[in-house]
Write a structure and sequence with these properties.
This protein has 408 residues and is an all-alpha fold. It folds into two domains: 172 residues, Growth Hormone, Chain: A (Up-down Bundle), CATH 1.20.1250; 187 residues, MFS general substrate transporter like domains (Growth Hormone, Chain: A, Up-down Bundle), CATH 1.20.1250. The chain is built from 17 helices and no strands. The chain is globular and about 55 Å long. 51% of the residues are buried. InterPro entries: MFS (IPR011701), MFS_dom (IPR020846), MFS_trans_sf (IPR036259). This is MFS transporter. GO terms for molecular function: transmembrane transporter activity. Keywords: Membrane, Transmembrane, Transmembrane helix.
């Protein structure tokens, strides 16, 4: 009996049991469809504008405007979903999103002024729903607390797969078919995925009419802000890693190595997420946050001292192992602490913090890379790991008082 109890702590069968539930596989599939444009949108925008204007500066400016707008609009859309229902938000935003993408493509080929193109990009960003937040809120409405970590692990693993495939699909479409093909597919996936979720009434979260007014906004809750720091730290780490691997590959004279190294890092995160979700942890969630943050920090240390491509690949895999588990833990903590009436908004704040952190990591990492090289960019990744560790340490008392222990 004791042996069986130990064995039951780890089982990939938890994913099978999760997806066999009524409507569960459909929710995961619809979320996958709606999430795919997240990994394609900015690169598709860059491919379109760089092909038509021959200016990476213009392409980067428009794509950056889109991403920043999306990060700022996500919590607002999440709040609307909590108050008026995801269904209404999805119907309105999906229609607006298709119109905004069509407008941007038309303006680009009409050689319109940059400000008009940027206005269309703002429209795309404002109508980009926080997919991760919406899907995670739906899982919370559908499954038990015991199955929720597995559901969040599955979603995080799907994120890794999408961010591996999405940019590749966008680049191939833009180069082989048409410069605007990537954005057209984004519009099609966004609309069809939104409508599929609208029709998936089984997972629609119940609107909580009576929410304490002082807790009406998720951002007003101190644990949400604390978890946002952890998400931002992961974003900074991922952004700096992107730049670092590209710079490192150039320094060793093999630019194509960057894609391999980034895939290895993402593969590490995927493996870590799968194993973490299959494990039935008995450690309290705040301690899991501390553990995963410490693992992320430890994983960034070898990156600073690595000069060999082989060792860099191994270091990238180790560094990536704790990324998905840390994000899953943050999601579990947010769900267990935040009132149901503002859960979508809470998840949206986490996503926004992650995207802003990613943008910061790419921006600062790019400047350091141009000036000093890949080795110095690794220090940003190390600092991000330290930030995640400090945030989890400082929040232990608060989170331990508020949260319940993980299921045994």
């Amino acid at each position: 009996m004791e042996t069986n109890a130990v064995e039951s702590k780890f089982s990939f069968g938890s994913y099978t049991r999760l997806l066999s539930g009524p409507g569960h596989a459909a929710l995961s599939l619809f979320g996958l469809l709606l999430r795919f444009p997240v990994a394609m949108r900015s690169i598709s925008c860059i491919m379109l504008l760089s092909a038509t204007t021959n200016s990476l500066w213009i392409a980067g400016t428009v794509a950056g405007t889109l991403m920043i707008t999306q990060a700022l609009a996500s919590p607002i859309l999440g709040g609307f979903a909590d108050r008026f229902s995801q269904r209404k938000v999805l119907i309105v935003t999906s229609c607006c999103h298709v119109i905004a993408i069509a407008l941007l493509i038309a303006l680009v080929f009409l050689d319109a002024h940059l400000w008009l193109i940027m206005a269309a990009a703002i429209g795309i960003g404002c109508s980009s729903v926080p997919v991760d937040g919406f899907i995670r809120t739906r899982w919370a409405a559908m499954v038990t607390d015991e199955a929720l970590r597995t559901a969040y692990a599955l979603e995080t693993v799907l994120d890794e797969i999408i961010f591996l495939l999405g940019p590749l699909v966008a680049i191939v479409l833009a180069t082989v078919l048409h410069p605007a093909a990537g954005l057209v597919l984004c519009a099609a996936f966004t609309f069809s995925g939104s409508m599929a979720l609208v029709l998936h009434r089984r997972s629609e979260p119940v609107i909580v009419q009576k929410v304490d007014e002082k807790n009406r906004r998720a951002i007003s809750m101190v644990w949400v802000r604390s978890l946002m720091v952890s998400y931002a730290a992961v974003g900074i780490f991922l952004g700096s890693i992107d730049v670092m691997m590209i710079a490192f590959a150039k320094e060793v004279g093999n630019p194509t190595l960057a894609g391999v190294l980034l895939s290895i890092c993402a593969g590490g995160s995927l493996v870590g997420g799968l194993c973490y979700g299959a494990m039935n942890w008995s450690i309290p969630q705040p301690r899991l946050l501390l553990l995963t943050s410490a693992t992320l920090f430890a994983g960034t240390v070898p990156l600073v001292f690595t000069s060999s491509p082989l060792v860099m690949g191994l270091s990238a895999f180790i560094a990536g192992l704790s990324v998905a588990p840390l994000l899953i833990t943050c999601s579990n903590l947010l769900e267990s602490l935040t009132p149901k009436g503002c859960l979508s908004e809470g998840f949206s704040w986490l996503s926004s913090a992650g995207w802003l952190g990613f943008s910061f990591g790419v921006s600062v990492g790019g400047q350091l890379s141009d000036q000093t090289g890949a080795a110095q960019v690794a220090w940003i990744a190390l600092a991000a790991g330290m930030l995640a560790l400090l945030a989890s340490l400082l929040s232990q008392s608060l989170l331990s008082k508020k949260s319940m222990p993980s299921p045994i």
